[in-house]
Structure formats: C-alpha cells, structure tokens
Amino acid sequence: MQQFSNVEIAEIKSRIDQIQEMLGSGAGGQVPVVSQPDRIDAPVPGLIEQLNFSLQMRRTRKSHFGSNQLTGPTWDMLLDLMLAKTNDRELSASDLATGAGVPLSSGLRMIALLEHLDLAERFIDERDRRRSIVRLTDNGVDSMTRYFEKMGHAWNSRRRLAM
Predict the structure, then answer these.
(1) Which of 2, 19, 60, 140 is most buried, by the most CB atoms less than 10 A from its CB?
(2) How many whole angstroms separate alpha carbon 41 and alpha carbon 44?
(3) Model confidence, pTM
(4) pLDDT tens digits, 52-88
C-alpha cells in the first residue's frame, strides 16, 4: 500500500479541517471561497485510487458483515481483536475502549453489539475477576479472515491494473 508523506498528510488534514469548519459554521448554504494558495495544483500521486479503494472497502465491509454499525470505533475494536488473535494476545474491555478512543460505557455497548452479531465474546479474566477479556468468536475470526481476503484480492487487482 502506498504511504503518504508528512507533507501530504498535512495537506489532507488541512482540507479536512476546512471542510469541518465549513460544515460547523453553518455557512448559510454558501460555500466559502478557498484562496488560490490552498489549491492542490498537482494531484497527490495515487490519491484518487486510494480514495476509491477506501470507498470500496467501506461498501464491501457493509455487504460482507451485513451491518451499518461496524464503523468507526466498533470497527477499530474488531481490528484490534483480530490483531490480538493474530499475535496470540488478550484484550480487556477497557483495552478495547481505550484503543477505540471511547469511554468505557460506550465501549461496553459496542462490545455488546459485537457479541450480538456473534463476532466477539466476553470472558471473566481468571487472574483478575474484575476484568472482562474479549475475544473474537470462531465466526468473528472467519468473517474477518474472509473480509481481508476479499480486500487483498481487490487491492492486488487494482495494482495489476495500474501497472
């Protein structure tokens, strides 16, 4: 996967900040004019392909898992759980909430959703009974593996087309 330079990341962040300001200011339906120095005269190499691939990933995730709810922090939790499974590590509910950047109460609701979807399960930590350990279920591991196989095939197809 192509990596962005720090300059490119700063430009993208600046654009996002401008969009957030525009949306947050309630510009009365008028779009503020962006001054010429803020324009990107030459497109960032591969940016359009990366944006299209990001959209494809989101759409594939929605159709693969059949849920609109696997976005943002909940998706981050699934990624953390898959990474933990791959590295033979355990994560607590509070680890997941912290990693997803949400309060523990919100994290527990997200974990409950993952349990409801049969993607994750909670266990009491035998070493510290105050902690809950969260793991992917067999279905969760299988679903994540199949999703990333699809994404790997899609990414490789794009790379072959670009050559």
Answers:
(1) 140
(2) 9
(3) 0.68
(4) 888 888 888 888 988 777 889 999 999 999 999 999 9
CA 57 to chain CA centroid, nearest Å: 10
Helices 104-116, 93-100: inter-axial angle, 10-degree rounding: 110
Query: Is 14 part of a structural domain of the chain?
Result: no
CATH code assigned at 135: 1.10.10.10
Q: Report the b/e string of 106-127 with b at 16+ CB within 10 A.
A: ebbebbebbeebebbbbeeeee
The 10s digit of each residue's pLDDT in 113-124 is: 999 999 999 999
Type of residue numbered 107? G
Assigned domain for 64 exists: yes
Asked if the structure places residue 2 within a domain, the reply is: no
Beta bridge partners of 124: 132
Domain residues for 153?
45-162
Domain count, the chain: 1
Q: Using CA atoms, how far apart are residues 38 and 46, in angstroms rounded to an integer?
A: 20
Report how far residue 100's alpha carbon sits from residue 54's, in angstroms, rounded to the nearest whole number. Answer: 19
* pLDDT at residue 112 greater than cutoff 80: yes
Contact 140, 78 (CB under 8 A): yes
Number of CB atoms found within 10 A of residue 44's CB: 16
